[in-house]
Amino acid sequence: MIERKQILFYRTLMIQSLFLFAVFIPFEAEAFSGRCYTAELDSFRAVWNEYNKEGRYTDLVDDTREYFHASLDNKDTTAFLYSGITMSMAFLSLEEPDSVSKYMDAVSPFISVNTDPRMLLTYNFVRGTYSLKRDYNYPLALDYYQKCHDIAKKSGDVDNSIAALLNIVHIYYVRSDKRGLGYAVDAFNLSHSPGTDSLAVCMANIAMGEMLFLSDSLDSALAYSEEALRLAWESGYESVYSDLHLLLADIYAGMDSSSVGGAAADKARKHYDEAIAYSANAEAGTLTMLYLHYGRFAERKGMMDKAISLYHKGLEISLESGNMEFRRELYRRVADLSYSEGRMKEALDFYKSYAFLIDSVASQSMEFRFDSLLLANQNMAHREDMNLKEIELLKANRNNLMIASIMVLAVFTAFFIWVMYRRQKNMYKVLFDRYRNYAARFNAGSSAQYDSGQVVKSLFSRLEDKMNEEKLYRRKDISVEKVSEILGTNRTYLSKAVNKCAGISFPAYVNSYRIKEAADIISQHGDQVQLKVLAEELGFNSVSVFIKVFQKETGLTPARYKKEMNSSKMGGEDL
């Protein structure tokens, strides 16, 4: 089955279409005050909805920005709010969180209790989606989406009630939690209310497909997803095509792994290709997920070259867009494939990138795990608060419930912290083993595999002799100029020899020797070694530089490396 933990399906492209359609269109001229040119605003609303429906978010921003500034100059508060929130929603789809924040901060001072409820609803939607995309803050996003649902339900706004429910479903989907099925069913039932927009019906079917997919009800998931695709085609909702084909591909891939039928694999491949074909309007998060899922499918089918090509494409998009959602998993996949095919240096480079990302998000990931535990409690508390306003007699029960919730939360928090600790420990062990394997090959003369000219090989061989016999790398003043003088050549030839034969720059080559010796010393005399002394002996100018280079080379800090070495000597992992 597809790995559910990796599924992040940000629904901004679809949800905001519904919000724009349902929120902006119903306003009448009487809703505006001040110096608002109603005819002009109506015209802009029509353009906004058409752009959004077609996924033309850059055009939407370009055509709205001037109107936004004009409404500010005219002190037209309502038009200012409309255009500002509209551009914020477009920037969500364009993966430009700084711009989202800029425009939301601009309109926030004008939001008050007297603001039209439907505009408040849209404002809360943008805030909630921003919390997900920028901060991965599930509880805060859930709070904003529940506010949306409360506002819509109170005003009898069916379309926006559906949209709010679908956003709540999305949070469960992000967390691979099939318990969101109830919200999906509520949204689906509401979508059959008289006069409901076809986009709401389409998206309600998508939500059902997602939740049933998580529930392993693949046939039912397929039926809802195909109905959603039919509605999208009929109505021309181009912004959802890529997402829908990806969902269908994942469903067929799940059927294929469950051995339901041989044709499932071909259909999965077809829909993955269709998702790529319609990816022009897809978000970076959707695209990286697409290439990750397609790569895993190709890998499972034994198409390793295609898999690694897809992973590289996903990484390229992730790095270009700054989107972090799947970068860690993509690094790990490329590293594992490179290692299995014997490309040790490439594998080590990607493992190190993976390790850096783990270190940078480790504490953050812990918070995300903790946040996910809060979801159930926060949702329960929200519903509880609504009931308490009507029935004061439940106060005593609420106190008992809160105590029980805190106790349960504490137990689950401790459990997930332990799980995260174990996972990170396992990652450290993998990196330690990979580096030792690479170092062993380095000692055996793996650099001989590089196909270079005889002159270059000869120069590099003499450099290796000097490094091993005279340990030139220990010198603090070592440079390509000084070493070229020692070898009786010039810096250009020496740099070329290192690049050709070692595949790295001269500084990286020197550091590889330094860190290899450091790793050997730590392995043999770990408890007796002072990092300051070791750094000094190996030619580093400071301990901090040594630690940074050591971690870059091995993927582990010296202290972590020492712990893994001790664990390896004892034949197991310490708890």
TrEMBL record:
The keyword Transmembrane applies. Keywords: DNA-binding, Membrane, Transcription, Transcription regulation, Transmembrane, Transmembrane helix. The keyword Ribosomal protein does not apply. It comes from Candidatus Merdivivens pullistercoris. It holds the Pfam family HTH_18. GO terms for molecular function: DNA-binding transcription factor activity; sequence-specific DNA binding. Residues 457-564 form the HTH araC/xylS-type domain. SUPFAM superfamilies: Homeodomain-like, TPR-like. This is Helix-turn-helix transcriptional regulator. Signal peptide: none annotated. The chain crosses the membrane at residues 7-27, 401-421. Coiled coil: none annotated.
